[in-house]
Amino acid sequence: MMELIWISTAYIAGLVASRLSFPPLVGYLVAGYVLHALGIAVLPDLHHLAEIGIELLLFSVGLKLKPSSLIRREVLSVGGLHLMLMALISALVFLWLEQRVTGGLVLGLSLAFSSTVLAIKVLEDNGELSSLHGRDVMSILILQDIVAIGLLALAEGRQPTPWALALLLVPLLRPIAHRVLSVSRSSELKLLLGVTLALAGGVAAESVGIAADIGALLTGVMLANHPRIKELSDRLWGLKELFLVAFFLQIGVSDLPNQAQIMDALQLLALLPLQGALFFGLFVVAGLRARTAFVSSLALTTYSEFSLITTSAVVKAQLLPAEWNAIISLAVAGSLAIAAPLNRYSHRLFSWVEPLLVRFERKSDHPDRLPDSFGAAEWLVIGMGRTGGVVYKTLCQQEQRVVGLDADPTVLEYHLAAGRRVLYGDAEDTELWSGLPLHKVKGIILTVPAFEVRLTAVAQLRKRGFTGQISSICYHGVEEQQLLKAGANFVIHPLIEAGNRLAHLMLNRRDQPSQ
Predict the structure, then answer these.
(1) Tell me, what DSSP letter sits at residue 489?
(2) pLDDT tens-digit map of 213-237
(3) How many CB atoms lie within 10 A of CB 93?
(4) pTM of the model
(5) DSSP one-letter string for 326-384
């Protein structure tokens, strides 16, 4: 009965939130507070289910990571400077208010951390996890997690064991892990293997004094680049989402704040724009374009769920009053509720403030710079994944001059290594369509997965006055009508085309005389 109450309440609250154009997770946060306010007993295993959800989430992220692409200049400069500045500001504030510098320093540093769960979920839902800014955000989150381990050790008076360094050897077990995944041919076995490795990584990390989510991330990296990794990732998707509901519910089960604590939490929420502005400024100084800096900063402008853990440890050590548990809980929940819808419309928000923010850009040769020229290219392929790669090779075989654009650094590296002409370009970037040199281009082929991105790209190109051919993929009938109405000349359904091609091949084979 208790399980039914919690699950049904989460569903109803999530449904209401989605109908109000909020992400369902905002409803889950509200559901946690409502159930706690009504005195409904907490599910005994709610916290444990939430931990499993976080481990599965980080494991899924690891499946898509390429370690060599994580170490970037802006990660160390932006992530490191942001942590130091926020810690300094926090220490000064607590010294002025309560003269509790040590507790304030620990709490302030933990408040400088961004929500890993929200950032990854937003990037994943938007299909931006593998984009350049998505990788930068992920790298900064990992840097914060590493600092968080030491911070929690300081707050609790414990530290990782000397064996903690052995976790860095986990990705070296890749050949064995790949072999095991290859022999696990059934979908059920793949799912069980993924869950087993995620939990095993978490257990191994905790046994050496490291956060479990770091271990799950490393085991995910161990399986990365396997040919069947997409099937495993797709299988884990629904299970991971279900467990993450428990994470958002548990935020609301702490002590409900009183009026004074609510005011303190609101003051902390009022500081969120400062945190976002600091991130934006540091990204721009590091050489990123205003758009990349804005979208990345918005994904990082939250208070981390990790601050709930550090606050509890600081209070137990009597470095801060117990009332801070309720204050931080409400501040974290509020930051997630605010950030979720803002990130959902991050690209639209940037288009509103673009004239102001582009003034802060610095001239640099950073990889997110847009191309100035396509040379003699007459065809553009936007999205160099599996479909886009085939389109590119087919045009080359017809001796056509073609250039490919993609926002994923790993994809760009792959095609450049193969000798293909590819450039950085994010299809969601409105500046890309307004600044592209298209006077020599005869046609543009859109193969990016997200329908909204393809639709916006077609509309932007026609609005700019591009008169060449535009073709796009689509997966639903309603998409085809909207793309054609926006100005696309040709639209194909990859799955339907594959079926038609198979049928024609079979019929042609049947009609051929037997030899």
Answers:
(1) S
(2) 778 888 888 888 787 787 888 888 7
(3) 13
(4) 0.71
(5) HHHHHHHHHHHHHHHHHHHTHHHHHHHHHHHHGGG------TTPPPS--TT--EEEE--
